[in-house]
UniProtKB/TrEMBL annotation:
Its cofactor is Mg(2+). Pathway: Cofactor biosynthesis; thiamine diphosphate biosynthesis; 4-methyl-5-(2-phosphoethyl)-thiazole from 5-(2-hydroxyethyl)-4-methylthiazole: step 1/1. The keyword Transferase applies. It comes from the Bacteria. HAMAP family: Thz_kinase. It comes from Butyricicoccus intestinisimiae. It catalyses: 5-(2-hydroxyethyl)-4-methylthiazole + ATP = 4-methyl-5-(2-phosphooxyethyl)-thiazole + ADP + H(+). This is Hydroxyethylthiazole kinase. InterPro entries: Hyethyz_kinase (IPR000417). Its EC number is 2.7.1.50. One of its GO terms (molecular function) is hydroxyethylthiazole kinase activity. Pfam families: HK.
Length: 274
């Protein structure tokens, strides 16, 4: 499972245009490089459309919005849609402010997205359901659990149909859903939430995987999530063995993505399909 997805990224080295927040720009660029793709982080409104039209995948992250980046995002998404380039949207903090929700409503009204990827609270808010967003973090009451898993799977399948996009939900249990099928991933470690930007990194990774596999978006998004989860497991074990902390965990996470191959992914992932 996912062997071809990983091979295509390494072979094609897809140019991945990320308009993300300045808190995580460096980590997003490095994880795109680590997986075998090529990042560009252009966000000037004057060149956003031109750069996006040359890319293989586009990552839009609303974590630190301002009027200039929003305009750049509009221009980049429009250009990507025109060129039929996969677009990943990370609705960071959806539900936390009116500005973010208005920006998202404008995006969904005007553009097509290949994947909408975020935490469960953000995607509940995008879907119009009650959510407990805490700033840019998911609320504990919204968590996907074994008890509510099937209910959440059905909700996100319906949201996928409504948005016309794969919906990728990260948490202790990850859900990557199309209207007909969902991948459930049970990998990763809670220490991932102690490092700023792991969700942003996953969105950039997803854009790279989709850029290398534009005809297989659901599997590309699922592979990215599984790879990030397995990398989190590997990073935690190395950190624990050496009695180290979150700084080392961050480095080991990047290492694990750079060394990720089909054998490592297959041997470490815990994935089912519903």
């Amino acid at each position: 499972m996912f062997e071809e997805i990983l091979q295509n990224v390494r072979l094609k080295k897809p140019l991945t245009h990320c308009i993300t927040n300045y808190i995580t720009t460096n980590d997003c660029a490095n994880i795109v490089l680590a997986c075998g793709a090529s990042p560009t982080m252009a966000e000037a409104e004057q060149e956003a459309a031109e750069i996006a039209s040359q890319a293989d995948g586009l990552d839009i992250n609303i974590g630190n919005l301002n009027s200039h980046t929003v305009l750049a995002m509009h221009r980049a998404i429009a250009a990507a849609n025109q060129a039929e380039i996969p677009v990943v949207l990370d609705p960071v903090g959806a539900g936390a402010s009116t500005y973010r929700m208005e920006t998202l409503r404008d995006f969904f009204a005007q553009y097509r997205f290949s994947v909408v990827r975020g935490n469960v609270s953000e995607l509940l808010a995008v879907g119009g359901a009650a959510s407990n967003t805490k700033g840019v973090d998911a609320g504990a009451a919204d968590a996907v659990t074994e008890e509510n898993l099937q209910e959440r799977v059905e909700f996100f399948k319906q949201l996928s149909a409504k948005l016309g996009a794969v919906v990728s939900v990260s948490g202790a249990i990850d859900i990557i859903a199309s209207p007909e099928r969902a991948y459930i991933c049970r990998n990763g470690h809670p220490m991932m939430s102690c490092v700023t930007g792991t969700g942003c990194m996953l969105s950039a990774l997803t854009a790279a995987y989709c850029g290398g596999n534009p005809d297989n978006i659901l599997e590309a998004a699922a592979a990215a999530t599984a790879a990030m989860g397995v990398a989190g497991d590997i990073a935690y074990q190395k950190t624990k063995e050496q009695g180290l902390g979150t700084g080392s965990f961050r480095v080991y996470l990047m290492d694990a993505i750079s060394l990720m191959d089909a054998e490592t992914l297959q041997g470490g992932m815990n994935v089912e399909i519903r």
